[in-house]
Here is the input.
Amino acid sequence: MTRLIYLAPVPWGSFAQRPHKFVQWFHNRTGGPVLWVEPYPTRFLQLKDLRRLRVPPTSSLSAEIPSWLTVLNPGGLPIEPLPGSGWVNRRLWRHTHAATGDFVRDSKTLLAVGKPSILALTLLKRFRHCPTLYDAMDDFPAFYSGLSRLAMARRERLIAQRVDTVWASSTEIQKRWSRHCNDVRLVRNGLDTTVLPPLAAEIPPRSSEKRILGYVGTIAAWFDWDWVYALAQARPKDEIRLIGPVFEKPIRKLPSNIILLPACNHHEALKAMINFDVGLIPFKTNKLTDSVDPIKYYEYSALALPVLSTGFGEMRFRSNIPGVFISQSISDSAELAEASFQFCRNIEYARTFALENSWEARFDGA
Here is the structure.
């Protein structure tokens, strides 16, 4: 396979994530061109979509497009949950069908789906002689509701049954699709070793008794504010530093030791993590997070940070890993925080961890 059509779940100009790393890896390994198909609305618009548009971008890509990649915007009305929506949108997809037809070289072209959609199903049927892959990186229906959730679940099932291979980003996703597909591989998330800030030969001692427990990422419906409140109250002399866009605001006044900082680009985020004593991943344990393998875990660990996390998704399987502390309830957060402060950080272990969990190692192993 020397060509790739990738139906992306996020825009090319967004914060670099698993989709960006996948297409970069494909090009590096094959030297072939990539046709990146931008996402379009696959559910009805909601008020929160308008709020997200007002959040300043944090991308370090600045929409730069390398010479080997073509970005294609299919467009589409936000009516996909409705019967017949594909027939309505297909007029908008004429350019997309023409461009994909010109790009395909049959068995030499991998058609990869990063987000279930009617357009993805249409292209899978049209190019049925191409090798196909579904990179199942999220429980997509869990992010939707009502008719949109039912429609997405049906589309995802049809796509998973039609492709040759499913990559599952977490144990829960692998378990789900193994009941429907023959070739399902566990391909967890990873990290980009090229953007990690250099680590000092030794961890410098803290100049004060105050410890910094930090989180970098989106604060949305999956963020466990109650757990964070409890931790802040139990550790009043320490600082909890939260960096990222806020889509789920706290319903109570924040304690003085919880500091909210604005979103930043990836380079600045990694530099901010260096100043943490402990990396936090305070997510709720529910259907929305059950299939999540957080990239933050890999980045914290690669920076030799102990990780204090709630027991959601893939994190619940990591309680026996050195430096990982999994909270089972609000009541144990203070005790685990103290244990994480006492953990002896190991620079060599962190460097080895980064190499073993790089995106290249992850995709090569698939």
About this structure: The CA atoms of residues 202 and 347 lie 7 Å apart.
